[in-house]
Amino acid sequence: MAASDELITRFDPADSAFIADPYPTLAAVREATPIFYNERARQWVLTRFADVHAALRDRRLGRVYTHRYSHAELGRPEPDQRWAAFDEHERWSLLQLEPPDHTRIRRLVAKVFTPTAAAAVRPTATALAEGLLDECRQRRQFDLLARYAQPYSVAVICSLLGVPRSDTHLLLDWSHAIVKMYELTTTDEQRAAAARAAQEFMDYTATLIAAKRIRPDGLLVAALATVEDEGERLTDAEIISTVIVLLNAGHEATVNTLGNGMRAFLLHPDQWARVTAGEVPARVAIEEMIRWDAPLQLFERWVLDDGVEIAGQPIAVGEEIAMLFGSANRDPRRFADPDRFDAGRGDTAHVGFGGGIHFCVGAPLAREELDVSVDALARILPGVELAVTPRYHPTFVIRGLSALLLDVGAG
Ligand code: HEM
Question: What is the pLDDT of residues 260-318, one digit of tens each?
């Protein structure tokens, strides 16, 4: 077996040692090859920044193929009817659409989900962050994810959308079940749980939309229910998928960025000191938090047209490509000294938010939310320290800690 073949077999996203610290393996594979075929997942895997960056913008690649080909035409299995509710809930999700539907729905979403709407969340977010941190301070030791990142992020997205705060536990349970479907390996039990959650989430959202039509509150769900563009409106099925994707995407990655990023800071106290001293503003530091330990490690695309060749490798129509964001963001061809966690790096050109037509529509909100929450932490609890070594969830695609137990410390 060639050296690079041996390295490639080490790329096993189900392996607990790989998940604990994927970066040495990713670095070795990235140096060995820009592209390789992962037999287990039947995907061409891209390891380097330039290829990932280009693939995100390549219109011959799509998030889905069903707008162009049947499953049979590409030799893929028909969807399993047991999980039909799961497919239905994301039928109109921006993440599962390609033009022209993607263009139409994204334009309508962008009309209400503006950077100004994201910026307007700042006072609410600040009050929430400060309130939660006061509670954490009294505990002396606390889980940053359960006591801060999660309630904060869910409350922010709910306040923006106009979802009652008292329902957040439902949203969290549904979303945790649903995201299991985005991993490379999923059990039938997890699929069944995700389909059940998707059905309940759709029913809940349909009721919410009906209520907003009777009593509009000027917030996002009400706005999506009434938005119009050149005579076009969203259908109820489209609004339901859109609200669900905003709620789910709107907290999972943000919570994991805060967890992964604060772990990085506490492993590099000199860098945290730069933030607490005011030398590096939180809004600069959050870019490095996303780059250094990406909360979303892998995104997929289907080859839709002939003639696709990546890093010298021809890839046929119907084949699948996996882009490694965490690897791209540590590519020394793009980032100087990429393994160094440098709070002041301030490089916003990482691929953490994707690129091209699917570029994260929530990026302005995520940046606002992370800025406020890291700034509040640095002001209110500058002395936080790791209480125990944190562990990651046993998943690779969505990378996040199970818990981040901290001591309040001095200061
Ligand atoms: C740090 C936090 C976040 C990260 C790292 C992140 C990352 C991403 C990435 C990488 C994509 C592109 C996926 C692809 O190309 O296939 C994406 C898309 C998306 N994100 Fe985010 N996201 C974050 C926060 C948010 C928030 C707060 C929201 C909403 C409130 C959101 C909503 C969305 C939506 C709706 C899409 C699909 C856009 C489209 O396909 O046109 N995200 N996000």
Answer: 999 999 999 999 999 999 999 999 999 999 999 999 999 999 999 999 999 999 999 99
Distance from C-alpha of 121 to C-alpha of 372, rounded to nearest angstrom: 10
Q: What is the pLDDT of residues 304-360, one digit of tens each?
A: 999 999 999 999 999 999 999 999 999 999 999 999 999 999 999 999 999 999 999
Average pLDDT on 151-156 reads 94
Tally Cβ neighbours within 10 Å of residue 72. 9
Q: What are phi and psi of 407, to 5 degrees?
A: -95, 140
Does residue 212 have its Cβ closer than 6 Å to ligand 1? Answer: no
Q: For residue 359, report the distance from its CA to the centre of ligand 1, in Å.
A: 7
Per-residue burial over 272-285, b = 16 or more CB atoms within 10 Å of its CB, e = otherwise:
bebbbeeebbbebb
Determine if ligand 1 sits within 6 Å of the CB of residue 292. no
With residue 135 as reference, give the H or E element that holds it.
Answer: helix 122-139
Place of tokens 């606390």: 142
Element (H, E) at 62: strand 61-62
Residue from 360, 369, 371, 373 to probe ligand 1 pocket by mutation (most atoms less than 8 Å from CB):
360
Output Rg (C-alpha) for the chain, integer angstroms: 21
According to the model, what pLDDT value does residue 4 have? 67
Return the pLDDT at 1: 42
Q: Say how many Å lie between the CA of residue 135 and the centre of ligand 1.
A: 30
299 close to ligand 1 (CB < 6 Angstrom): yes
Centroid of ligand 1 to alpha carbon of 21 (angstroms): 24
* % of the chain at pLDDT higher than 70: 98
Distance between terminal CA atoms of the chain?
55
Quickly state the pLDDT bin for 374 (edges 50, 70, 90).
Answer: very high
Q: Is the peptide bond before 314 cis (omega within 30 degrees of 0)?
A: no
CA-proximal residue: ligand 1, atom 16 (nearest): 299
160 Cβ closer than 6 Å to some ligand 1 atom: no
Q: Is the CB of 225 under 6 A from ligand 1?
A: no
pLDDT, one tens digit per residue, over 200-230 is 999 999 999 999 999 999 888 998 888 776 6
Specify the amino acid at residue 250.
G
**Whole-angstrom Cα distance, residue 238 to residue 60?**
25
Cβ of residue 180 lying under 6 Å from some atom of ligand 1: no
The reply to whether ligand 1 has any atom less than 6 angstroms from the CB of 133 is no
State whether the beta carbon of 97 lies less than 6 angstroms from ligand 1.
Answer: no
